[in-house]
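Predict the assembly for these two chains.
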Amino acid sequence: MCARICCTWRCLLLFLSYFVYLLIGAAVFQALELKEESELKARVWRKKAQFLNSSSPSAAREALEKLVEAITEAVKHGVNPVGNDPDSSHSNWDFSSSFFFAVTVVSTIGYGNISPTTPGGQIFCVFYALFGIPLHVIILTRVGKNLTSHTEKLSMYLSKKGMKEKRVKILTFLFFLVIGAVIFLALPPFVFCLFENWSYREGIYYAFITLSTIGFGDYVVGVDPHRKFHRFYRTSVAIWILFGIAWLALLFNLLSTFMEDTEKKIAEINRKKKAAKEKMNFKYDANTNLSSEDVSMLCSEMSVRKGAQEPFEQQELSQADLKIIASDHDQEETKPEFLNAKISDQETSLNIICPTITNPRQTCLPREKISQDDQ
Amino acid sequence: MGELSPCCGTNRSYFWKLLACFVVYVLFGAVVFSAVELPWEMKMRRELDRMKSSFLLEHSCLLEEQLDAFLSTVLDANNYGISALRNASNDQNWDLPSSLFFVSTVLTTTGYGHSVPFTSGGKAFCMVYSILGIPITLLLLTSLVQRLMFYVYWAPITYIHMQWGLSVNTVARIHAVVTGLIVIGCFFLLPALAFMNMENWDYLQSLYYCFISLSTIGLGDYLPGKSGRHPSLQHLYKIAIACYLAVGLIALLIVLESFYELRELQRFVALIMGRPDREKQLHVMEKEVAITASKLEAEGLDDCGAEGRSADEPTPETAGQPPAKQ
């Protein structure tokens, strides 16, 4: 059946384009980083050779290898003996650092600059994350709702002022994007410049990598042993992380909804074209019984006549959003799912509509159309 | 729709209670981690200092500043995955397969940190790439999961319900447990065995690695693929691991969706989220099963079966699913 094949092809296309996206990313990273890596390698080896030349002969090499190996291993777990006073009170597992570690585990950022090494620590980490991540997701959902309530207020205010629906949507989205970017991405790097002595660019990079929960760990706040940090520095960072992750996750959600909508709109346009074509054929074939294709054509025509454009869009948007709510409580999808506050009033109406779609012979049709007709 | 507006009184108190729970949970974790890990760290520090001072004593012509300077460079390079050790492998961190692995860890937001962009251009590109890539990944994942849910969840449940006459909820419970066990077996226990043999880890560490990776925490303290192996085999190994992580993530999502469909869990979540009045959603599972039943019958009649119903919709048919998730 044509529709089925179309669908499979579209799926394949989606996968293929995703894979191509991955390949493109890999190629670009390689182009940017490979040269630098080999240069850094050469530098380090040169330094090592210099160092060995300056010190005494062969016994040193073995000892040096062992030392470097031990130190590398230690640094992996956050113990850095370079220029350190062995009796310094700084530790990676004092209470505030452990607190920060717990936050990074539960939010799935996972820097990795410190990690549990003891078997007990690792087992505990697993179970801790098992329960902590869902808890974090629930919290994020709530925070997300709080955030969107503000944009909701704005959109209501704008609607009252008589602005068009679409404009209101765009404006609130922009508002959300810009205000959030300023608060969560543009301002904190100044604080990091002050406390961590990073450049502004590094600060933004750190902010983004943290808030998207990628969390490489190449930059981490509050771990430099040579600096003294204000007592509430890391606590404020933790709060920033919580709200920032919520904001960025909402943003990702909106972006992915937007992508999905665009795709649906394109599909819709194609479908209408096909229906129009069929309509022309049907007019010359008045004696045939109504088949499912005709039903579909009639349906699409009806919906077009109903001026379904605007409300249909809304319906589509809500469908996509509902899918996101659908994964709302899906704990593993920790990053994205939040309610777009806009759909709050659409929820109940769709709840009534959707279960009425039961006629299998009309399953070739998009559900929204049927539901509109049933209504 | 007051339940969705967070400004209402009941919801406010729920939110603060929730936040308090969260803070307590994090504090609890901090205490335990500190208690467990601190002793080891102190021991390690002492040992390392001992090693360093004995090294300096042995080679008395060496100044501590020189050694520190050298070690700083080595450690900085190590941060970017470059080892100064003699027997370190010559694997590049940014050849194409490794870049591919890196890109997949970025897009799933795992972010091991084993290799990180060093150049400013790399960092900037990384940000732009993820801003676009993460939503795409999200979309793909949710689409896949929704699609698979029909075949893996709704169809079997409906079939068993109709054939054997058990209640929908019973079948759902059994199904959730069975799926959970299968996924744990296939994506945790078995791969951990494989890693144990391929890498120099013990079973617990392999399990730990599997969990930390699949949950996308991605600490990066354990990383497969470091041992010296034939280069092309190494590449294949890395790609296989990336695939394992992707498929494992999808499987995990499906299991979680299955559990979420359970009536008990929905009640529990509604309680936590402060949405008391959701009686109607408790009957949604029966409705969903009815829909699936008719679809399964229809599949026998005409070609417009599971695939056809979403005629031109590339993304999964969500119309049937959403009511269940509210």
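Residues 2-54 of chain A form the longest helix (53 residues). Chain A touches chain B through 175 residues (CB under 8 Å).
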